[in-house]
């Protein structure tokens, strides 16, 4: 134990530090040494916006009006919206919008977003496919911002940027995530895109399994596998309001369950002989799944070490203070009233706990591909 304990402790600490600090630092250094810029010029190809909707009667009309008002040639844009087993009048609301650019599809049996995308994308007439959800509103220049990067023939997918209108538990984490994705783009390609606003070349789309949870990771990764780049358009903004805290947790659990599903099925993603982005996939996605057990390892290994060393007692105290801050952050409901250290500790542990839940759901196959409309926080 004298040699094994410190090794486990420092290995756990080092891996956690690498995931959240080391990996972005290496990306930043690589970007400075060998940045790979891509061409970005104005163009106006035919664009098809594809949406899967389930029980979105409250938002669907405003979403369609938002899309129809985008700054893009009328004769070069269409909207394909599919109702996925809606039971709340969504279909009737969609059919209220009278515009030749809107094509409504009704799927009476609920199958999930991936199945709807598999049905709608082949029917699209546009060279470029823009994928979005009903919930988020687009900036008027979104299409132009997304399409500019496709003048570079090496680019196969472009991610927009989601702007959260008010702070919530993971708002700071989302800003960090966007920072990492941008650094990945500068080096080569982003691992995944923003599901609320992204675009792909139609010719590169491959149908995905109907029970896929994370279409916004699997679709771009398959495009990258063909040799194309997945880049970010930081001026292609979609706007959203945060989820209520309980819904935010469920959403995060679903996303992380999708990551477990992805690595279980798409094992080529971590194969350096098949996937040129394997290092990014491991560092950005796979290792994050290990943070919760690494936290437990660091704490448990710290306990016996603290009985023999003042230094390790100090480190144990620091860990206890960190988790105390996380508890305090959980007990104080108003995010705006929390100090930064409380928000950070709470968000960090929030994500770790969501990973634990996601792993359990994935193991016992309790996470379904379908998803109920979340409630915004007020």
Helix proportion: 40-55%
Return the structural class.
alpha/beta
| CATH hierarchy class name of the domain at 47-244 | Alpha Beta
Which CATH architecture of the domain at 47-244? Answer: Alpha-Beta Complex
Could you give the count of β-strands? Answer: 8
Q: What's the SSE pattern?
A: HEHEHEHEEHEHEHEHHHHH
Describe the structure.
By secondary structure, this protein is an alpha/beta fold. The chain has a domain at 47-244: Spore Coat Polysaccharide Biosynthesis Protein SpsA, Chain A. The protein is built from 12 helices and 8 strands. The protein has helices at residues 4-33, 60-68, 90-96, 113-120, 142-147, 171-187, 215-225, 245-265, 278-286, 291-306, 310-331, 340-363, and strands at 47-53, 77-84, 102-107, 128-132, 137-138, 155-164, 197-201, 229-240. Strands 3-2-1-4-7-6-8-5 form an 8-stranded mixed beta sheet, sandwiched between helices. Strand 1, helix 2 and strand 2 (77-84) form a beta-alpha-beta unit. Helix 1 crosses helix 6. The radius of gyration is 22 Å and the shape is globular. The termini are far apart.
Based on the model shown, name its key terms.
378 residues, alpha/beta, Spore Coat Polysaccharide Biosynthesis Protein SpsA, Chain A, eight-stranded mixed sheet, 12 helices, 8 strands, 48% helix, globular
